[in-house]
Amino acid sequence: MARNLKEINAYKKIIGALPIPKQGIVSSAQAGDLFPIENKEISLNAKSDFYSIYGLFYFAVGDLTNSYTFFRKNVDLFEKYSEKLQEQTESHLTALSNYYLMCMLLHKYDECSLIIKKIRVVPTKSIRTQIDIFLISYGRELGLYVYTGEYSKGIHLVNEIEKGIRLYKGKIQNHEIITFYF
């Protein structure tokens, strides 16, 4: 979202440069590099928004490689400017989750494991976000082991997951707990 008049004008300039075909949709091949994301006039939040939009666009048109690239750029942005963006925990978790999804779809399993570790160390003061980090990271890790056939690694997580369920007892919904059983 635009934060000031200067940023609004920068958005307008970028939007005005977008190619709008008569059919009403830009294909992956037509999209190219649509706007100067590295433009210094754009805030970090705007850059993050654009990386997310690009990642989602490429995902929607079936270009997983470019989707991966932009979701990774978004995560890199959070890591590079972690002090400035530390209050945006939910956006950071979303960026990591999107990046994880692309890694799974592209069979980049080593990166998936690294992303899970990154999710677990996202700084937060909120108990709800701590619960989300627990649910997301362990859910993703179990899913990775099922997908790769490394079931014994998943079995080793059982004690940690049960410990987390006890720690957050009364704060985790039953439907969230059930996901660990599947």
Topology:
Layout: H1 5-16, H2 28-31, H3 44-60, H4 64-80, H5 82-85, H6 89-105, H7 109-120, H8 127-148, H9 151-155, H10 158-167, H11 174-178
Helix pairs in contact: 3-4, 4-6, 6-7, 6-8, 7-8
Describe this structure in words.
With 182 residues, this protein is an all-alpha fold. The protein is 69% helix and 0% strand. It has eleven helices and no strands. Helix 7 packs antiparallel against helix 8. 22% of the residues are buried. About 8% of the residues have low confidence.
Mean pLDDT: 83
Unreliable sequence segments: 19-32
So how many helices? 11
How would you sum up the global shape? globular
Number of strands: 0
Primary descriptors:
182 residues, single chain, mainly alpha, globular
Summarize the model shown.
With 182 residues, this protein is mainly alpha-helical. It has helices at 5-16, 28-31, 44-60, 64-80, 82-85, 89-105, 109-120, 127-148, 151-155, 158-167, 174-178.
